[in-house]
Each structure stands twice: as structure tokens, then as C-alpha cells.
Amino acid sequence: MKRPVGYGSLLAAGGLFVATNVLRSTWTAGRELTTVEVWVLKGLLAAAVGLAAYGGYLLASRVVARWSADRRRQHDLRNLLRLGFGLVGAVGVAGAVTDQWVGVLFSLGVVGFAITFALQQPMFSLLGWVYVMTMRPFQVGDRVRIDEARGDVAEIDFLVTTLWEVHGDLVESHQPSGRRVTVPNSVVLQEEVYNYTNEAFPYVWTETTIQVSYETDLAFARDLAREVADDYCGDEMAARIAEYREHLEETPVDLDVNDRPTVNVEQAESWVELHVRVLVDPRNIQTAENDLYAAILTAFKDHPDRISYPVGRFR
User: Fold this and answer.
1) What global pTM score does this model have?
2) What is the band of 300 on the pLDDT scale with cuts at 50, 70, 90?
3) Which long-range contacts (CB under 8 A, 24 or more apart) does 270-273 make?
4) What is the pLDDT of residue 145?
């Protein structure tokens, strides 16, 4: 659809440009232009410039879509094209109306300074957009947390970033809530940004907690929980950890990480908590926790003489 509309806009712009020249030649034959005629010619020329910029943007967007199959790159390039063609179109229309091309550029500089001073927050958001486009703290499709907002990045505009919310105040699990959250890009420059699916390493650690009593054979329970988790994702986790270590070698960070699932122990009021730690895809956190919890409880049921659960009013 973009290509026909783009060609149509360019043809219309060409037609208006030709019509402007024809009318100018006809009306200026032996006389001066009237005020109405001057503004008609300026209007036609401004419309031609605006349509040419719009048609050029649509065709350039079409080229970008065919050139790159990556939807993230397409989104970013379309934003840059929209900004570029928008500025060119605005300058062109202003120049066509005023006939003062150099003056328009100078005025845009003065007006731009005034707008920057008067609209500091929107300009700060625009600067945040430039930062996101250049430094890439996140891209479209990433799962992120920006300040208090958490979700999948749906769109990155000049002033705001839109997220499909995950794990909001409507749901307790790591699941979509169905809401769209709009975050000003200025927040990116002021608050922490957590990227759960960074392109370099799109995995995170998560823990599934199992409560057992103090009478439990703790060493046996830990080993059994670790075996269950290893059967569930041990080989995949080892492959991902190998990739993680490669990234660590490129940094000065000296960090030792286990390449298989582990079980950490924490003492609570009247029970012991086993934290089963695994590496998973961030979008499958809840599924992994559900699967591990069910599998570990099933394995524990086969050993009631060695594993028991806390009871009583403190639990």
C-alpha cells in the first residue's frame, strides 16, 4: 500500500509544481501578480513540497522494509526517515511560503532555541530517544523494566516508549496484563533500565522456592531437587552458560558461575527454604517455575520418611 501512495504523492507533487510554473507564466504576462495570485502560487508550491516529502518518506520506508528483514532495524530506520523527511518538508514548506530560504533556516535556529528553552521536558525526551537509538540499552521486542514499568517494548517514538505490560499490579506472575504503558524517553536518562532479553545474552536466572521442615534430611532434599532441575534444563543451561562465559571474557569482570542448576538454602521462621536456581528464557520464567515446582514436589512425595513439610500456625 505504501508504494502506490508514495508514487501517487510524488506524481501529485510534480503536477502541482508544473501547475505553479504554468500559472506563474500566465499571470505574469505583462502585469504584476495580485496578492491573491501570489498566495495561490505559494500554496501550490508548499503543497508540492509537502507531498514530495511525504511520498519520498513512504518510498524510502518501503525500501527499508525490503532491504532489512529485521523488524527492529526497520522500526528504527523508519523513525529516522520520518524525522529527516519531516524536517526537510517543514523547511521546504516554510521556504515556499516566505520565499526566504536562508531566513527560514536562521529563523528555525532561533525558534528552535526558544522551543528548547520553553519545552525542556519534551526536548529531554527527544534526547533520550537519540540515546536509545545510538547506545541501544534496549530495542523493539526486548523485555525491559524502566523505572516502575515492566513489559515488552512495542514501539520507540521520538518522545515516548510504549510497552506491553508484564507483571503489573493486575497480575502476580510474570505474565502479560494486557495493558499498554507509555514511558517518556527522558526517564531512560534518569532512572535504571533493566533489559531481560539483551541481544548479547537473552537469558536470566530465576529461583523456585520449596519450603521443607527442619526434620527434613536437608542434604538429601537438596540433591534430589538439583537432580530434578538438572533433568529439566541442565543441558540447555550448560550451553547458555558457555556463551555467558565468552561474554564475561570480553570484560574485566571476574565472576564464577555454575553451568548446572544449583540449590541454595535459607533459614526461615519455622521452616527451611530451598531455592532452586536455573537459567531460563525471561518469557518462560513462570512456566519454568511451575514445571520445576510440580516435578520437585512429585519427587519429594516418593520419600516421605526423609522429606517433610512445615505445619502449624506459623507457616
Assistant:
1) 0.65
2) very high
3) 270/214, 270/310, 270/312, 270/314, 270/315, 271/211, 271/212, 271/213, 271/214, 271/309, 271/310, 271/315, 272/211, 272/212, 272/213, 272/214, 272/216, 272/218, 273/209, 273/210, 273/211
4) 94
Do 271 and 265 touch, CB atoms closer than 8 A?
Answer: no
What amino acid occupies position 10?
L
Residues 95, 104: Cα–Cα separation, whole Å: 6
Pairing of strands 149-156, 193-195: unpaired
The β-bridge relationship of strands 272-280 and 176-184 is: unpaired
Q: How is residue 30 written as a grid cell?
A: 505583462
Tell me: the pLDDT tens digits for 136-195?
899 999 999 998 899 999 999 888 999 999 988 888 778 899 999 999 999 999 899 999
